[in-house]
Each structure stands twice: as structure tokens, then as C-alpha cells.
């Protein structure tokens, strides 16, 4: 899901709350200049292995 709204409107917290409400873990990753395709791949791999949701900011 892509939520592309203004900063500070509660997008990340809403996704975290929804995941908690249905009993899933939500892992929030802050993407910066140091993120490359390898680190994103490792994050996605971990999310798939744990059946968690991912939120990339």
C-alpha cells in the first residue's frame, strides 16, 4: 500500500496501529541516503520470513 500524503499526518502510526489491531508486527524502516538495494532486500527478506508488515519512511 502506498500512502503519499503530507508529513506529520499520522500515516506511519495508523499503519502500526492497524497491524497491532490484527495481531501483526510492523517494522518501520527510515530510508536515507545510506539505504541501497541490498539493505532494502535484507529488510524485505526479514519481513517475509516473519510475516510482518513493513513501513519504509
- Identify the overall geometry: flat
Helix content: 40-55%
Number of helices: 2
Strand tally: 2
Q: Give the terminus-to-terminus CA distance.
A: 13 Å
Strand order in space, largest sheet: 1-2
Q: Could you please describe the fold and organization of this structure?
A:
By secondary structure, the chain is α+β, with helices and mostly antiparallel strands. It has one domain (about 10-55). Helix content is about 45%, strand content about 15%. It contains two helices and two strands. The chain has helices at about 10-20, 35-50, and strands at about 25-30, 55. Strands 1-2 form a two-stranded parallel ribbon. The longest helix has 14 residues, at about 35-50. The protein is flat, with a radius of gyration of 12 Å. The protein starts with 10 loop residues before the first helix and ends with a strand.
Essential attributes:
2 helices; alpha+beta; 57 residues; 2 strands
Summarize the model shown:
This protein is of the alpha+beta class. It has helices at 11-21, 37-50, and strands at 26-29, 53-56.
Amino acid at each position: 500500500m502506498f500512502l503519499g500524503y503530507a508529513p506529520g499526518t499520522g500515516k506511519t502510526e495508523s499503519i502500526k496501529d492497524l497491524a497491532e489491531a490484527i495481531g501483526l508486527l510492523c517494522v518501520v524502516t527510515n530510508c536515507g541516503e545510506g539505504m541501497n538495494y541490498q539493505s532494502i532486500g535484507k529488510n524485505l527478506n526479514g519481513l517475509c520470513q516473519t510475516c510482518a508488515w513493513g513501513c519504509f519512511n
